Amino acid sequence: MKLPGAFGLAMGALAASGGAADASLRLCNQSFDVLNIAVAEPARVPAGDDAFVTRGWWRVAPNQCATLIRESLQSRYFYVFAADVFGKEALSGSIPLCVSPRRFVIETQGDCLLRGYLDARFIEVDTQEQDNWTVFVSPRPG
């Protein structure tokens, strides 16, 4: 999938070489920029259909990977946001969730700006119910 005006995005399941200890959500930066990554996943405590927990930041250099979730994936859908080190959105979608300028865990979403957070647009990642999934961010086209 290519996003207009953004980095390319490819996703795929990687075969787990071992058991559940190898299960994770990873992001590999195949672009030429250092990226700051935030991830969101559905809240584990039932708090409504739109309850998400956002976490950040992982700094991922070009040609490097980062493990965003180090356990068996509990949901089919996860959400990812990326910005370069200058704050320019590098991977942006349509799902509005809260982030913070510094390292963060935000357990409730909505009214981001009123609560002192920033509003970011995350992309949806469909893991196809796999235990292990890697998101690849490729260079901008052109």
Keywords:
single chain; 142 residues; seven-stranded antiparallel β-sheet; 47% strand; disordered N terminus
Number of helices: 0
Helix percent reads under 10%
Order of helices and strands: EEEEEEEEEEE
Distance between the termini: 15 Å
What's the domain count? 1
**What radius of gyration results from the CA coordinates?**
15 Å
Q: Largest sheet, if any?
A: 7 strands, antiparallel
Low-confidence stretches: 1-7, 11-21
Shape: globular
Q: Averaging pLDDT over every residue, what do you get? A: 83
Structural class: mainly beta
Q: Report strand %.
A: over 45%
> How many DSSP E strands?
11
Explain what you see.
The chain is mainly β. It has one domain (26-138). It is built from no helices and 11 strands. The strands form 2 sheets. Strands 3, 4, 6, 7, 8, 9 and 10 form a 7-stranded antiparallel β-sheet that branches. Strands 1-11-2-5 form a 4-stranded mixed β-sheet, with no helix packed on it. Strand 6 and strand 7 form a beta hairpin. The chain starts with 7 loop residues before the first strand and ends with a strand. Residues 1-7 and 11-21 have low confidence and may be disordered.
